[in-house]
Design a protein that fits this description.
302 residues; alpha+beta; Arc Repressor Mutant, subunit A; six-stranded antiparallel beta sheet
Length: 302
Amino acid sequence: MLGGGRVKKHESTIKLYYRLYDFLIAGKTQTYICKVLRRDKAQISRMTKALEQGGWINCDRHFQRTKIYTATKKQFNIKTLKEVYKLTTSRSQRLHRRCQIIQIQKSSFICDVIHPPNSKMFWDKEWEHNGLHHTLIEWPFANIGSVKFDRMTSQKTDQLRIILPRLLWEKDNDNPQTYLLEIADKCATWFMKKSGIRLDNLHICQKPDYALVLTDKKLIGMAQQGTFRAGDIMIDSSAPDELPEIESKDWDVISGLASAPDDIRMLKEEISEIKSMITEMRSEFHELMRIPKTPDSFIEVA
């Protein structure tokens, strides 16, 4: 009975992912999908994020309230479902410990093009902006998401910008700068093999924003009303996820805020222990005070 129940649940999850994927690439909204599939919004949102994180779908309207998704080059089939399960069950990808999870946003790297790509290279988009000719291709990577490669050329410039997707990072893993550079380097290596391009001098282009989901009711209320800035810190609940967050480009600031609840909890425990010690000391002191300084009588010894 137990084994059969697990198989049934696994099959229903597979069907649910297939139906969700079909609805999303057909342009259906999550509100519509929740009604049709009779699932709560949190579950559909979590599964949609897993599909996007795995690189099977891409959000075309990140900065609007209603999000529309399209299929990527990565095929979604029964074999790839194992990757989805890893994303939805991985400890680093869940927000049940929201105070420990930091979101990395707007991280990009740039490098010099020392040899152009082959002529057969196909680009997704092409446009002109501020005297630069842009050619862009977006490609999905497992456990990372869709990475954008933006080549910028002019008479004097030929560079490639690597734009990383949003990533979730556990505070206990320390500063993610090394990890981000490793990802960018791997993406650059893959792109060179795919396109025949030769790159050099990979370095950071845009310092990432670090975001932490708010848990304090007063701060959440402020974020829901608008955007507030104080130096390098910003509080808002903007698109695409519309979660009340506090953001900063300073890792130490966000990491410190993420540690604050645990630090306060530990401090409370230490204070409680100190109070217990003081109570015991008082009790011992009162016992000592009851002992007379000189004995009331002496027993004569013959």
